[in-house]
Design a protein that fits this description.
six-stranded mixed β-barrel, alpha+beta, six-stranded mixed barrel, 25 strands
């Protein structure tokens, strides 16, 4: 212990006496450790401890994937759920459904996002109540009228009840029915972003289909559960073919995290790889600084060895200095990590991670960061310590033999510089590719005008407008009511997906043409004013009229690319198409008369982005929105001014028609694009840009240090060259030549790594690091930065006075 204290004291004196070196090394460490701790905080919150639910790693969803890889699920009736509970691989099954209700009984009618659970639902999830209690399975058995009780979310408790501590026992009125509040769940219980959780009502139609959650038995695997449920679902599909895709499909039982995170899980992994590279660059930077510093200290180390210090003793001293640097950097890094976490959380795309996740600098993250700090110090100091712990006494102790000492560290420094440059170029290429992808997405031509548009999602009030005729008339009346709102220019309902995120793709048949299963198109259900509101140009023929929508006419408008791909050389007007999926029955959907009747093409409109912003535009057809009416509907509203300011007035207009009609979600269309379409690319590009900028700064510091110490150690050589007639320019060239070679090799290696890893990165970011433009700009930025970093210390070599230098030596 006394020896350790002495080593620490000596290391501290060394760092205080050489402040510039110490501060540079500490900042290098702090930046790498801060980025690593911040990203690990995200990974810990998202992948290791995302949910507050009981044994959450065994809770799973049952998903269906079609041939294109699109995800969906299969709902079950209560009778089928009872059969499913007998599966050997499942411990429990709970049923759930989302119902939009209105909180009535107050001065202002508001929307309450409500989830109805089977009696075992809250037991299944197992999150404790913050106030009051939760209902139990015996209290709400299936098929028996449950008590009128409700459990409310933490946010709803604050917004609706003012966070009153005496909320238990109070009455909550939903759709004019009164419920007694028995419990409030904690802040992390946010299943489905629900406001209120109720037991399933007893008067459900036996054919009502519900979504499910399953709990896998500890001894069973996901593969076993998938196999068992695959057979069960195919038996259901045999009796109810409308529930399953007509083409081949795959059943997957996936854990909550795997199902909800999807591709973003790969993005997080890529992000962690990026900060690992940044940490390696930081380690390399400190190693370069320590090598340069060690070269300057070789006479001191040689003297200590001559006085009897063993190699182990010198090694321990040098490693102590390295660990002290990294621990100090780690402490500073924790402060920076706190700010970095806030930045990352603010940039995370909406719904990219579960809302239950808490991302913070918790104890596991702090322990991880402490371990990283120590490991980083050892890694950064190991190579210099091994090299300088065995000094060559004869060479070092001879006066003026600094060239010999310098040459010993040159190879190691060169390797360090090459590795650091390669990793920096790799990060720069990743950032450049991500930024280019984001800019392409942001500036992509959408084919429609999202400005001054309001996007609203809502549900038809439960048990209302249950026939096709009344539903069609209600949607038409609701549209006209919205149009009459002051400040509203136009309104239209639609269904079947939302461009540019993607639309409902399905096979289509052309009457008179050979059958072709590969002939597919996006199908969207729209009203008469959809094209005018979206400002999608009409290229040929006409659009659908209001009267045709009201009667569910079998007419369609197709996109330009549909005509080019499937009707090349033929006049599209008057031809007939059959969207296969529209001929099928759908649970809880109202279908227009004569569903088997083909759809006549009456017009052609311009193309819109309908398969994301990174995929080619797909053929598209538009049919009247009344052909297939689901309980959930979407509205687009064009306003004269800021659409956000019209939300309340539009809501009042709708409730004047039906007091139970409420909006589930509303967005200004531009906000929607920012949150859900551009956000993923923006998130990756900003973080990669920050990481690469830090890496570039660290690399510049490393190169600056190498050139500075090279000039310091070669001062005598430079003086002799200049005394023999060498020009200042030739001295500058000689000084930069060695660094230019190592930088060039590192640059080529980094470009090669970027090209080689491009496919792996493309899977998660849609970016390509093979792009010649990206690599050219990346290389140019790095070369320019390198020149700026090296030119300042190199100019010191040009100012060497040969007479003064040679006299002093």
């Amino acid at each position: 212990m006394p020896t350790l204290v002495a080593d620490l004291a000596f290391a501290l004196r060394q760092l205080v006496n050489h402040r510039v070196y110490a501060i540079t090394a500490i900042v290098s460490m702090a930046l790498g450790i801060a980025a690593t701790a911040a990203v690990y905080s995200v990974l810990y919150g998202v992948l290791i401890d995302p949910y507050p639910y009981r044994d959450a790693n065994h809770i799973a969803l049952v998903n269906l994937y079609d041939k294109q890889g699109s995800e969906g699920d299969i709902p079950f009736t209560l009778a089928e759920i009872q059969q499913l509970r007998k599966a050997k691989s499942l411990a429990e099954v709970m049923a759930r459904r989302s119902v939009t209700m209105t909180a009535t009984g107050g001065d202002l009618v508001t929307t309450a996002r409500t989830y109805q659970f089977s009696g075992n639902g809250l037991d299944f999830l197992g999150a404790p109540a913050m106030l009051g209690r939760l209902w139990t399975a015996p209290e709400a058995p299936e098929g028996v009228a449950p008590p009128q009780i409700a459990v409310i979310s933490f946010l709803f408790w604050k917004s609706h009840f003012g966070a009153a501590p005496n909320v238990i026992g109070k009455t909550l009125e939903l759709n004019h029915q009164k419920y007694t509040v028995i419990g409030v769940v904690g802040p992390r219980f946010t299943w489905g972003d629900g406001d209120v959780y109720l037991p399933l009502p007893a008067d459900l139609d036996p054919q009502t289909r519900l979504q499910i959650l399953v709990r896998i038995r500890p001894e069973a695997s996901l593969g076993a559960a998938t196999g068992e449920l695959n057979a069960f679902i195919r038996r259901i599909g045999h009796d109810h073919p409308e529930l399953l895709p007509r083409e081949s499909f795959e059943v997957k039982v996936e854990t909550l995290n795997d199902s909800l995170l999807g591709q973003f899980k790969g993005t997080l992994f890529l992000l962690f790889c990026a900060v690992a590279l940044l940490l390696l660059i930081g380690c390399g930077n400190v190693s370069i600084l320590m090598l340069a510093r060690g070269t300057a200290r070789q006479q001191e180390l040689g003297m200590r060895a001559a006085l009897g210090a063993t190699r182990l003793r010198i090694l321990r001293q040098l490693l102590t200095e390295a660990v002290l640097l990294s621990v100090t950097g780690g402490v500073l890094g924790m402060g920076l990590a706190y700010l970095a976490i806030r930045l990352i959380v603010s940039l995370l795309p909406e719904y990219s991670i579960p809302h239950e996740v808490v991302i913070s600098l918790n104890i596991p993250v702090l322990l991880f960061s402490a371990a990283i700090s120590v490991a980083t110090g050892i890694a950064a100091g190991l190579a210099p310590a091994l090299q300088f712990s065995r000094p060559r006494l004869n060479a070092i102790l001879q006066a003026g033999d600094s060239r010999t000492a310098t040459s010993r560290g040159a190879k190691v420094r060169s390797v360090m510089v090459v590795c650091q440059v390669a990793l920096t170029v790799l990060l720069l290429a990743g950032a450049g590719a991500a930024m280019r992808t984001f800019l392409e997405a942001y500036t992509a031509r959408l084919g429609f005008d999202p400005h001054n548009s309001l996007l609203m999602f809502m549900a038809i009030p439960e048990r209302s407008y249950t026939t096709w005729q009344t539903r069609s008339q209600y949607l038409d009346a609701l549209t006209e009511k919205i149009k009459s709102t002051p400040g509203v220019l136009d309104a239209t309902d639609f269904n079947g997906g939302l461009a540019p995120m993607g639309v409902w793709r399905q096979p289509v048949h052309l009457l008179g043409a050979p059958a072709d299963e590969s002939r597919q198109a996006g199908v969207q259900l729209v009203s008469a004013d959809y094209f005018a509101l979206q400002r999608i140009p009409l290229l040929q023929g006409r659009t659908i009229t209001r009267a045709e929508v009201l009667r569910g006419a079998h007419l369609t408008v197709v996109s330009q690319i549909f005509v080019q791909r499937y009707l090349a050389g033929a006049n599209p007007i008057g031809q007939q198409v059959v969207p296969v999926e529209l001929q099928r029955g759908f649970p809880q959907a109202l279908i227009a008369p004569n569903p088997e009747q083909p759809y006549e093409i009456v017009g052609v409109v311009g193309d819109v982005r309908n398969d994301g912003l990174h995929q080619p535009i797909q053929p598209q057809i538009y049919v009247p929105s009344t052909v297939l009416m689901f309980p959930g509907i979407s509205f687009l509203v064009r306003t004269a001014g800021n659409p956000r300011q019209s939300v309340r007035d539009i809501g009042n207009s709708m409730r004047a028609l039906d007091q139970n009609q409420a909006v589930t979600q509303e967005y200004a269309f531009e906000d929607f694009l920012s949150l859900f379409v551009w956000s993923h690319d923006r998130f990756i590009s900003i973080l990669f840009a920050i990481f690469s900028a830090v890496a570039l700064g660290l690399a510049a510091i490393g190169l600056f240090s190498v050139v500075a110490y090279s000039v310091q150690q070669r001062t005598r050589e430079i003086a002799i060259r200049m005394a023999l007639g060498a020009s200042r320019l030739s001295v500058l060239v000689v000084t930069l030549t060695s660094v230019a070679w190592t930088t060039g090799v590192g640059l080529l290696l980094g470009v090669g790594l970027s090209i080689g890893l491009s496919d792996s990165v493309h899977k998660w970011t849609q970016s390509s690091m093979r792009d010649a433009g990206v690599l050219s700009i990346t290389s140019a930025v790095f070369v320019l930065t390198s020149i700026l970093a090296c030119i300042v210390p190199a100019r010191r070599a040009m100012r060497v006075d040969p007479m003064v230098t040679l006299r002093s030596n």
